[in-house]
Amino acid sequence: MQKKGYVSFVLHAHLPFIHHPESNDYLEESWLYEAISETYIPLLKNFKKLVDEGVDFRITMSLTPPLLSMLDNKLLQQKYINYLEQLIELSEKEIKRTTFNEKMNNLSKYYYEKYSEDLRLFKDEFKCDLISQFKHFQDIGVLEIITCGATHGYFPILYVNEKTVRAQIAVGVQTYERYFGKKPRGIWLPECGYVPEADKYLREFGLDYAIVESHGVLYANPTPIYGTFAPIVSPQGFTVFGRDMESSRQVWSSINGYPGDFNYRDFYKDIGYEADYDYIKPYIAHNGARVHTGIKYHRITGDTDNKDIYDIQWAKDSAQMQAGHFLNSRTEQIENASKYMDKPPIVLCPYDAELYGHWWYEGPYWLYILFKKIYYDECNFELITPSEYLDKYPEIQQCEPCRSSWGANGYSEVWLNPSNDYAHKHLHTAGDRMCELAYIFKDETDPIKIRALNQAARELLLAQSSDWLFIITNNTMVDYAHRRIKDHIGRFTRLYNELKENNIDEKFLQEIEQKDLIFPDIDYRIYL
């Protein structure tokens, strides 16, 4: 069948920087360990299977600077190994506990084998280095890795002081180069937050394109003639690709999206909440709160509290069927769009990476099946990366993209509302003060002051993470998010005052350098 268009998958792999060398009591550190076992390792395993089977595919992933910094952190690598060892121990106990139920017993054996294999892969095969595994797939040409803002700072609010946006971009690009040995071509704008004021800085640091929410393109001025089926370029010369709404809805929607299939594993039914308390206590939070363990025995089943036992083969059957449905839907979509275009349409499918595996357990397998189908079955499109599309079709309509985000209702209310608006005056004040410090000390030679200035820049960047504002709005780990904003602004302010008073407390500086161990190559002069 003649190829009439392209589909581009973009997965946004991001977690906020969480590093607590002072304690093992921080439940939030487990976000990383869950993502490694449920999303990153399954994706890498499926990429390898596709390559080994001779399947030519393309996928794009953002690996954000905080995530890269955590994956590269020796203490967190060891804590992940401890996390796996504990899960293997729990799985062994589950094999004994579930002997009365054949289906559950089979699943407990499956979990034991899965976590044992994760440990073997991580320690023995990957040498605790997931970054080089992703880099390998970029180097052989099947994966394009793109960058993000340094700490996922939200540009549509930060641009009040444009230098703080420039610094987010500069450190994001610098971190990427440190790990991948070349410049990134694309950027996932934090929260897909687009403002035209950022374009000149995106261009300054050599970036070619970004991913934006659908209405960022559809409401552009003038209206793009191809909608989201082609990128547009801003008057400042920066290209954006818009999210395709139809393909997103099929995967993402909690109501009629694929992840809601009744054969899939139920995320919420976890033995951390259901097993006898004394039995499960060693495997839940240190304070005794029940939490997810990752061992789940039930499928979604439907809108009922009486869930059926999860069946792996049934789940795979559903994934295969839905991969076929997605393929047919894109074939039809591209057939229709290509009739009205003078170049092949591109259907851009951006998602949070953690949807694949963590939230939708079967997601990585679904991708694997889909990519095989695209390669072997008759369809009218190919997989492509945004960079490849730009290289093939460099003529792009110029439009002014619309200010936008992919948050609820499309603009900024997730990150600026009565629950979290108190934070912004502190973030803006700290941003202005960082620029002031960079100017006052622009010719500084004292190594202690330079360390303090660089640490002040780290504290500001960590405070600016959009994750804290998002968590507060969503009313999840609210106390932790409040504390992180307070801690980073507090540390920044203390360094600011000590620098201005020429009285740096070296013990305090060393202590926070060890806690907020990120961006080793940072130079505070990026705020000039």
Key phrases:
528 residues, alpha/beta, 7-stranded beta/alpha barrel, immunoglobulin/albumin-binding domain-like, 9% strand, globular
Order of helices and strands: EHEHHHHEHHEHEHEEHHHHEHEHEHHHHH
- Poorly predicted runs: none
Number of strands: 10
Number of domains: 2
In short:
The protein is an alpha/beta fold and 528 residues long. 50% of the residues lie in helices and 9% in strands. The mean pLDDT is 96.
Molecular structure report:
The protein is α/β, with parallel strands linked by helices and 528 residues long. The chain has helices at 30-52, 65-71, 74-97, 102-125, 130-139, 155-158, 162-180, 199-204, 214-218, 245-252, 271-274, 277-280, 312-338, 363-376, 386-392, 422-440, 447-463, 466-474, 478-500, 506-515; strands spanning 5-13, 59-63, 143-148, 186-188, 209-212, 232-233, 239-242, 346-352, 381-383, 397-398. Strands 1, 2, 3, 4, 5, 6, 7, 8, 9 and 10 form a 10-stranded mixed sheet that branches. Helix 3 (74-97) packs antiparallel against helix 4 and helix 17 crosses helix 20 (506-515). The longest helix is centred in the middle third of the chain and has 27 residues, at 312-338. The protein is globular, with a radius of gyration of 24 Å. The relative contact order is 0.15.
Write the layout of secondary structure elements.
Elements: E1 5-13, H1 30-52, E2 59-63, H2 65-71, H3 74-97, H4 102-125, H5 130-139, E3 143-148, H6 155-158, H7 162-180, E4 186-188, H8 199-204, E5 209-212, H9 214-218, E6 232-233, E7 239-242, H10 245-252, H11 271-274, H12 277-280, H13 312-338, E8 346-352, H14 363-376, E9 381-383, H15 386-392, E10 397-398, H16 422-440, H17 447-463, H18 466-474, H19 478-500, H20 506-515
Parallel strand pairs: 1-2, 1-8, 1-9, 2-3, 3-4, 4-5, 5-7, 6-10
Antiparallel strand pairs: 6-7
Helix pairs in contact: 1-5, 1-14, 3-4, 13-14, 16-17, 16-19, 17-19, 17-20, 18-19
